[in-house]
Structures are given as C-alpha cells and as structure tokens.
Amino acid sequence: MTNPIAERPADFDPYWSTTMDQLAALPSAPELTELPLRSTDFGTVYGLRLTSLHSYRIFAYYCVPHGEGPFPVLYTLPNYGSVVHVPAYEERQQYIVVALCHRGQRLSDQPFAAAYPGLLTTGIADRNSYIYRGIVADCCSVVDFLQTRPEVAKEKIALIGSDLALLTAALRPQVDALYYTPGFFYGAQATAARSSAYPVEELNDFARTYPDQAAAMWQTLAYYEPVHFAGQVSCDTLIVTGDDALQTQPLVDALAGKVERHTSAHSGYRDGVAQATWLAQRYGVGEPVLPAAWQ
Questions:
Q1: Which of 10, 62, 64, 122: CA 20 to 30 A from 192?
Q2: Non-local CB neighbours of 212 within 8 Å, separated by 6+ positions
Q3: CB under 8 Å to 100, separation ≥6 — which residues?
Q4: How many of the other CB atoms lie within 10 Å of CB of 133?
Q5: Can you give the pTM of this predicted structure?
C-alpha cells in the first residue's frame, strides 16, 4: 500500500526560495570552541555556533580527526527529541562528523525551548510561522558552514537521518550522499489517520483541540512533504524501507538521483552495520570502525 500524498502547493518553490534567501542574507558568524572533555587522541571535538534564520544562534558538535585532510563528512540530522548526543566514537575515527542541535533542542534552547510532545505543531496553523521553517534553515546553515572549511572534502558530504536530511539534500545540492529513513512528514495526513503513536499523534491532538485550524495545519504540512522535494535530490540516496516497500514507492519514484534500498532489519546492530558499510565503501576509508558490541 502506498502513502497518499498531499497536493504540492502552487507557491511551494517561492516559499522555500524566500526562506533560503532570508537565511543567506544573515552572516552565519561561526564560532568554534574546543571541548577538551569530548576530544580524543585521534580527533578534536568542537562546539560550533552559527546564526540561522531570524538571527537564531544554534549549536552543533563538530568533530575533526587528526591527520592529513581533507576528510569526508558524515552530517547527522536531528531526530525528534530534546537531546542530541556527541557523535559516535567510532565514526569520529574516520570522518569529520557533525551533529546539529536545531532550535529548541538542548544547547540550542535559548530563547526557545521545545516541548516534547508539542514541537511538531508549534506555529503549524501558519506556514510562515511554523517552527520547522526555521529548523530546516538550521539544517541548511550547517552545510553552508562545511563549504567554507579547508579540512572538509567538499565533494564527500553525506547526510544521515529522517525527513530533515532529505529536505536539506534538496535545498543544498552540494551534498553527494543521503542515507534516508522516511519520517513523520512523509504522507503526514494519511499516516495520522491510521496511527495513534507519537509524534504523529500530535497532529491528531491538534486537529481535535483546534478543529477550525485543522485544514490550515494540513496545508502547512504540504510544504514539508518529502515527495515534493525529492525531484531536487540529485545525490545518491539509500532509502531505508519498512517491511512493505510499496509504502515508500512514491519517494523512490520521485528521487532524481541514483536510489538504493535497504529493508530495515528492525535491529540497531544490523541496520547500523549496513549504514557504516555503505558509507565506508562509498568514501574508501577501509573497513568501518564498529562498536565492540557489533563485532
């Protein structure tokens, strides 16, 4: 069964081009501060601060291995939750690794601290004030920073994550790889209709609480539908599917670049090995360094 997809808004392109123009007009003012407690004998971990949309200062972990660069980059986009952890010890040995804390998440929670549940519907009745407009800009601002860094192999930047990763790959075509697991923006209205699990249930909660604003909510979410971005994703993509591969077929059909599929094993170990192997083979870093528990 495929996911029904909301109609693409007529002003989809102007909405996002205006957002990106507003972001570009702001000096990013990057600040890097070494975090000695997190650094190791094989690399340095920095706290990175950048200015994003609406002059919001965001934080990211920026981890650089010692040695001769430039290095390939693994940029992990945020999941839905308040805390973003320091990137994996193993990944930091072979790549520059970046983990963003978008606005509202811990370390990027001044002046706005996100509520969980609640973030998914913050400002959702107005597409211009929807919190995820700023969050997507936060994600893009990190790619802009990477493009300025001499230690970065700019032709080797991989994005890893859910819908924020795909949206960023569409808006920042400089990236060359996407390891993507579809999330709550994909077919949002159809998914919410058959689910009571959070965070998608936040959409149902909003519709029940504010029935007069439900139509506006679904209209806003159409601007964040991954299928509408997929035609701009020209990089190689590995899409992680559930047991029913047909559910993600509209995404596979819409993606502009080369697409591979990985059927999730529903195992952090097995799926983690698959991800590490795909990236290591792509970037020629040798055998992936894996957690001891995975070996």
A1: 10
A2: none
A3: 58, 59, 60, 75, 76, 77, 78, 84, 138, 139, 142
A4: 22
A5: 0.97
